[in-house]
Amino acid sequence: MTDWQTIKPWLGSVIRVFLGAVWLWASLAKLHNPRGFVQTVRAYDATPEWLSKAIGYGLPVLEFALAILLILGVAVRLAASTSAVLFVVFLIGLIQASARGIKLECGCFGGGGTTDGSTSYFLDVLRDIGLLAMAIYLIVWTVTYISIEQFMARNDVVVVPSAKRLRSEQGRRKYEAQLAVVQTQARSRTMYVNGSLALITVLVVIIGIGVQSGRAKITGSLTATHATVANGVVYGKKAAATVEVYEDLGCPICEEFETSVHAQLDKDVVANLAQVRFHPISILDRNSPNQYSTRAANAVLCASDNSVDAFVAYHNLLYGSSGGKQVQPKEGTAGPTNFELIGYAKTLTKNFTTAAITTFTTCVNSEQHKPLVEALTDQASKRGVDGTPTVFVNGKKLGSNTLAALSAAIKAADAKGPAPAPSPTATPSASTSGSPSASVTPSTSASPSPSASK
Question: Which of 149, 339, 377, 388 could hold 248 in an S-S bridge, CB 3.0 to 4.6 Å?
């Protein structure tokens, strides 16, 4: 019959390799997208910016190092102890997010961040508790087979002398002395190896943070004709109420928001009761088979190059319908192709000339403003935007994304600000159905001058 002493090392070996594989999977899923993982960390809203970046850039590197140590079977107790600490931190992060009602995907194996779908942390918590139990097992019973530690300990065995020799004082003392020497050497070796590997791991993580930080930098142009990272696309003259709208064109809740508010918001802009700053961001591409969120955000910024009115008309169309068909795809399905995105602009004949369509086509197909989309998304993450739509009025986040709440906030801001100077020749959008089409023609006179978007 097999006893527990025989089973422990083999069970430990299985647990060690399994934990190593988990860390390897988790690290590789995050290493390729350092900026995206920083945004995932920010979504937990639990750490200052400098720590969010340190975690976002450094954690995947640490996870990779733990994977190597565990799979090779060296510094097992150290790796298991570090793993246990991380699992406890992960549990705290998930529990506090759940308690605060933050809706996100954990990002434990890449992706992650804010979500508009239903959220349940039960399975994530259960998984981390199971992994924590495995780590504790390795801390308590660290001896495993098929490992570097087993290889290094191959000469640590002291042959037990015969019973006759052990009965003699001299024989027993000699055996105990040999045993003490071997144990001392083993402890010294363990301390040296663990200390050296801990130092190497720390250095690797520090270097990794630098490398990942460099990889996270956005390359390419971060400006458009009527859009900036700081202000997005500015619609309307300066007003007492500044409305900032952060939205993902693949977000169904954003469509509901636009359906309910865009007609009234157009009127407020024309009446100089509000200036709107649109921030098209991309946080839902993980749910899109063809990266619709990024491509659509790029497309509306391409439209803004033509004019702010063209941006508004095209933006409203993407949240509405064309040819009797809803433009926005069902969540989790492929969105319109670039060819279709270009085709929608062609229907807006009041906003796009033939020459403008040619420029727009090149911009969409080349994803000219993708770096700007990435920068807008990162800036939103830094500001604490943890879902879409997120709306600010004069810097204060709207508690409810409803027309009533938005109108009340604009009214309160106008009551404190200077009197509006409406555009007498402007006519707001005629569409009030929430399904705008080519007939949406926001006022040209309500558009800001180029300097207004800076």
Answer: 388
Whole-angstrom distance, CA of residue 329 vs CA of residue 407: 29
**Could you tell me which residues come within 8 angstroms of residue 433 by beta carbon, excluding any fewer than 6 positions away?**
none
* Nearest of 377, 414, 419, 413 to residue 396 by alpha carbon: 413
| pLDDT tens, position by position, 382-428 | 998 878 899 999 999 998 999 999 999 999 999 998 888 887 654 44
Q: d(Cα 368, Cα 379) in Å, to the nearest integer?
A: 19
Paired tokens of 201: 């791991």
Please tell me the distance from the alpha carbon of residue 143 to that of residue 150, in angstroms, as a whole number: 8
Complete DSSP assignment for 297-344: HHHHHHHHHH-HHHHHHHHHHHTSEETTEESSPPTTS----HHHHHHH
378 contacts 39 by C-beta, under 8 angstroms? yes
Q: Please tell me the pTM assigned to this model.
A: 0.79
CA dist list (Å): 275 to 245, 269, 270, 327: 11, 6, 9, 26
Contact 268, 365 (CB under 8 A): no
